[in-house]
Amino acid sequence: MALIDTINPLLTTGWAKGDAGWSLKDYEARGGYKQLRRVLESKMTPDDLIAEIKKSVLRGRGGAGFPTGLKWSFMPKAAPEKYVVCNTDEGEPGTFKDRDLLRFDPHSTIEGMIIAAYAVGAKRGYNYIHGEIFEIYQRFEEALDQARAAGYLGSNILGSDFSFDLFAHHGWGAYICGEETGLLESIEGKKGQPRYKPPFPANFGLYGKPTTINNTETFAAIPFILGMGGEAYLGLGKPNNGGTKLFSVSGHVNRPGNYEVPMGTPFAKLLEMAGGMRGGRKLKAVIPGGSSAPVLPADVMMECTMDYDSIAKAGSMLGSGAVIVMDETVCMVKALERLSYFYFEESCGQCTPCREGSGWLYRVVHRIEHGQGRPEDLDLLNRVTDNMMGKTICALAAAAAFPVRSFIKHFKTEFEYHIENKKCLIDPEVQRMGSGFFKAGAA
Amino acid sequence: MVEIEIDGKTLQVAEGSTIIEAAHQLGTYIPHFCYHKKLSIAANCRMCLVQVEKAPKPMPACATIVTNGMKVFTHSDLAVKAQKAVMEFLLINHPLDCPICDQGGECQLQDLAVGYGESASQYEEEKRVVPDKDLGPLVSTDMTRCINCTRCIRFTAEIAGFMELGQSYRGERAEVMPFIGKTVDTELSGNIIDLCPVGALTSKPFRFSARTWELSRRKSVSPHDGLGSNLIVQTKHDKVMRVLPLENEEINECWLTDKERFSYQGLNSVERLTKPMVKQGGEWKEVAWNVALDYAAHALRDVAKTHGGAAIGGLVSPHATLEEMYLAQKLLRGLGSESIDFRLRHSDFSADAKRKGIPWLGMKIADIGGLDRVLVVGSFLRKDHPLVAQRLRQAAKRGAKVSVLHSADDDLLIKLQARAIAAPSQMPAVLAQIVKAVCQIKGVASDSTFAGVTVSAEAQAIAQSLASGNNTGILLGNFAQQHPQAASLHALGGQLAAALGGGFGFLGEAANSVGGYVAKAVPASSGLNAAAMIKDPRQAYVVVAAEPELDCADGAQALAALRQAAVTVVLTSFKSQAMLDYAAVLLPVSPFSETSGTFINTEGRVQSFYAAAKPLGETRPAWKVLRVLGNLLDLSGFDFNTSEDVRAEVLRGQPDFVAGLDNGISGVALNLSASVGGLERVADVPIHFADPLVRRSTALQQAADSAAPTARMNAVTLAKLGVAANDKVKVGAGATASVTLPAQLDAGLPDGVIRIAAAHVDTLALGAMSSILSVEKV
């Protein structure tokens, strides 16, 4: 059963019946595909459509927050062959919103993609689904079959002269394939490695053709935006941060799960919706936007509202909206070790600074955690991250560097304690209790 | 053009240029590893990071396109800090085993580490170890040294045409490797050694045999195919240790074929003849030079006296130098013989009196890449002219449409527009169809001989492609030149080019295919050509640098002719069992590396070179030996002191390109209905068997391209003969000659054709390269 607690539910309205409410007839009953029908029947021009999306100030939900309408308007009009691609390669630790979007309401994404294809003039689309959520891929295939049978996909959709085909493509679990150009390479059957940009996908995308690539949640929001109008959608959030956003809250809260709230909702409210801290423990730190976002200490976080600008001002990123909550039982060195291992494991190996640097970071953090740290290690880590950031084709090197820098910045004493005393500042017994409680609470 | 500023210097560069190209124009070096001017941009090593005004981050110079007014700083603090950071990362997992690394001394990483590396590493964790890979007999791997620049991968995919290498695994565990269980088999594989900026890929034959700084370097010219690739021959103590490309954009660019790179092993072969030898009473004796030369001179003079000069035949390798060819023909003509030829693998000489000039490429090698429509006629292009194939491969990627007319459909790794695959006997007829179709499309009158020619769909498709071009090229390959109706193919090719208003030429078979004509090493009307002097055996032969049993169109016949001759004088760098059998005198002469000389390549370019090493043992340059023979025979005009004197006499000056090149031909009686019964042989000359030198390169002989010959047929032909692939079959030529070979399915062959390689001892007994063969299951 989907866990729903929202303020003004929008994208998650269809989740109420859980796994029983995903199919086409349920979606149609909720007003699904009405917007597509309206667009096609009213012969809305692509320009008007894009203008509407621009009004909503919908910003890319994958993490970068780039304005969606603007992105669509970059697509060259004259190109004969264009693609729309949906990025469901949700691999960022802490993020699980796209998984549930496709699980409980796949048709909103499909409808959003069809409308997007209409707006940019694409005839073909792909949804690239993370390899580790295979059952979601299967559900999406089923949903596609339903949409095809109902005439929402294929030739002359709903009797119009617009034709569009959509296909699902499942990856094999590589984090790097969530980077849009790595994803395109992967669809093409190549090793998933980001491409040097420019050219951007809008000019040179899938198979070298102009391509619009958006996150699942971005596409899923499209029908709702058209339903209520761009301005109304913007009004749900705050200026420059339109609409609602799904947050995947995980960690030491009583009710981890996806929460849809308007942009600008205070973090404290989100935490409350997630049932508050487990066992009433003290909040220690929050990673507000997925594992690559810099960690923020409790006091800073409690002052933030959940939108791009507020989190950025606090020194982190809203990212994909994965909120990782850590309580006082967490050893920050151990937490960083795990994160660093992830980036070491997932670096594609293309660019020298990331290929070599991610392993260096992990090994040093690992040493510190295992009581073999040296006093100079913290400076070394900062220097290595400095040498990695901004020197690679994609942002993975920066993603590996941000946690290291922010953990050291905000929790330096813990690292120093580790190095000096060759053990955790947080008593291992307390740590065990923390994780033990985690298990007990989940039952 | 856009105007940019690099380190304060303003310059104009073409729109779309990258910063690294612009910097190059200015002579400013930007450190790099993955960037290579001939390969696609990977931008992965990050060594070329530079500062660009207004850019928040350092930008890769290799991938950043210049914009008007851009200000670039290649040595600013930001740039140098970024470059040093990358260098530190590159070195943390590099083994730093320079003292035992073959790349040491010529290593880009080593060189740049001097400028950008620290003297000590702060990396104190465990280093990465990467398992080595088996890439075959030519390229050795030390993959722990690899910096994952992917130049080798991009080379195989983009230049060689097939991605034989790739990168597996991720991140720090990323490894460059071939397909599982496969090696790198391209005929251009050695270039990945040059491309590798570190010691991950090194030369297997050269491995651990010298340090690069111990080597002397000499410029030279490849003695193999007709391109005359420019070489750097490296020697240690007068032994050739290694051959590298000398970059020449107009010929070989920066590449070499494996044949050119590794054939040097033959120079150090145990079969090198180092002392003159004379057969006396059936016994071979090593003798002094004066004894051997006296013997040879006397023997030849005796034959000339007794039987007349016409009883002597001269067979000169097309790989011999201009000077050697010139003196050889002078010697023969001095003895009263007109029978001299270098076109050993040709079988149709009927064009001899009809040719307007010296057959050549008809264009510059560099022009091949600019053609927009190409028809390659009768060529095992990838193996016979790998670097021409490479140029066409790139041209095809730029939009050129390449078509093929041939008797085999080998994968050229070029995207073909159209193809016509026909039995050898049908090739002139199919070419005539193409000519007719082009004439029809162009609305020009075609030869009246074509009245009865019906244009096939394949010919029509080729014609249509050719007719739609603005810059066409018709190129006749080795197979067309060796074809029994070569004159017809020549004439038809010329007609086709005329109808198209485009280029037409021959892909020179050997290093001196043009030079042979210039040196007049061809018979005058009264003399016998290479085939005739074998078919009609002579009393005596002078053989220069050839092994006629392997280098002639009909090796078996050549062997028989030489055996029956009273005297065979062989000037050779190698001794073989066959030579010991048929020769009377063996004179050890220098291979290309030990003599000065000249090759005139297929575009007519005169390329002279000096000796790279001292002659081995008592070996002497062949031009000197021929000169002394001329002196001993009291022939006039043999007073040369240097090879340059000889060249000056042949070329009358020092032109860059020779005169008299003309592919025009007239008066050829076309025979288009040449239908032959039986199983037609298609004989290719395998790349590593084409000349005596390459046949003796031990490493090349282990390469995939050196596989033992098989009897290749298509499924229809196999079925008709009741033979299955891999069956042993007895292939017969005539009444008595036969060889036993495994049958092999080759779907690219036309019906009624059997493909068996020539120039190989296993198939020598089959005789002529073009013949009718019989097959029976053993």
Concise synopsis of the structure shown:
The complex is a heterodimer of chains A (443) and B (778). Chain A has 443 residues and is α/β, with parallel strands linked by helices. Chain A has 19 helices and eleven strands.
Walk me through the structure.
The complex is a heterodimer of chains A (443) and B (778). Chain A has 443 residues and is an alpha/beta fold. Helices cover 45% and strands 12% of the residues of chain A. Chain A is built from 19 helices and eleven strands. In chain A, the strands form three sheets. Chain A has a five-stranded mixed sheet, with helices on both faces. Chain A has a four-stranded parallel sheet with strand order 3-2-1-4, with helices on both faces. The model of chain A has no long low-confidence stretch (mean pLDDT 93). By secondary structure, chain B is α/β, with parallel strands linked by helices. Helix content of chain B is 26%, strand content 19%. Chain B contains 23 helices and 32 strands. In chain B, the strands form eight sheets. Chain B has a seven-stranded mixed sheet. A six-stranded mixed sheet of chain B has the order 28-30-29-32-27-31. The longest helix of chain B is centred in the middle third of the chain and has 19 residues, at 289-307. The mean pLDDT of chain B is 96. Chain A binds chain B through residues 174, 176, 191, 196, 198, 344-360, 363-364, 367, 380, 386-387, 390-393, and chain B through 41-47, 49, 56-58, 60, 63, 65, 82, 85-86, 88-90, 92-93, 122-123, 125-126, 128, 147-148, 166-167, 169-174.
